[in-house]
Structure formats: structure tokens, C-alpha cells
């Protein structure tokens, strides 16, 4: 099982739950040291970690290949990786803020899920892809998170 955003609080909980159920985990995070730390105390054997910038679409091939090499197959993707650039008022949101969040939170989600689905299809066993959104897509988010909320709404729309 692959978990992106594995170094965050929810990502750590997801990796721990899968490991507790007997799965081998590939923890993926922008910060490789933090990804390694997230698997340090997991039960079971065969866990691995990798640092990747998922906003770089070329990294998706690396993720798929690493999962195949380290885990033997890619059967589950739990995709939690996201970024949040807070801006207290909407007029402070820059194009760079927008692009970063849209690229990582929405664009990378689409292309990563597509790459993983193709791998699962080619393996002939199927699998599961779970994308994480946020209540922010529905409520407009919390202080300074308008772009983040918009990208999370895109994920909800994409997975329906």
C-alpha cells in the first residue's frame, strides 16, 4: 500500500492502520526524512519510504516503479499529499499561491490516480485508490484557505 503525505498527522495514522492490518507500506512525502520517520515504528516488515515532489508529474512514474520494486505490487493508494498557502484576505492571494496549490492538490491528484490506475489495470488484479479531500470544499475552508478549499472541491468532483 502506498500512502502519500505520509509524514503528516493523518498520513501517519493511515500508514499505521494499514501496517497494523498486515500491509507493507510505502510512505511518500516531500520530506524523505519525515517519510522514513513515519515508518520507523510500524509493525510488520517490508515498509519503505521515499521523498517525492508530487507536483512534478515525472515523480509519479518513480512512485509507481518504487512501489512495484519495494512492495512487489501496487494494490492500494491512499493519497493525502496536499499543500496549503494561507492568505488572510483574498487580495493577498498571488498567482504563485494559486499555481502551487492547484498543481499539488488537484493536478497531481488527477495524474497520480491515473498513473496508479493504469499500473493496477496492467497488473490484472485491480486495487483501491482513496483520495482525501477536506471539509473545506463544502464550507469554504478556514481562515485564509480559499484556494486550498477550491482545490479540495475539485478532488470531490473528480472522484464522484
Automatic annotation (TrEMBL):
<comment type="similarity">
    <text>Belongs to the short-chain dehydrogenases/reductases (SDR) family.</text>
</comment>
<keyword id="KW-0560">Oxidoreductase</keyword>
<dbReference type="InterPro" id="IPR036291">
    <property type="entry name" value="NAD(P)-bd_dom_sf"/>
</dbReference>
<dbReference type="Pfam" id="PF00106">
    <property type="entry name" value="adh_short"/>
</dbReference>
<dbReference type="GO" id="GO:0004316">
    <property type="term" value="F:3-oxoacyl-[acyl-carrier-protein] reductase (NADPH) activity"/>
</dbReference>
<dbReference type="InterPro" id="IPR002347">
    <property type="entry name" value="SDR_fam"/>
</dbReference>
<protein>
    <submittedName>
        <fullName>3-oxoacyl-[acyl-carrier protein] reductase</fullName>
        <ecNumber>1.1.1.100</ecNumber>
    </submittedName>
</protein>
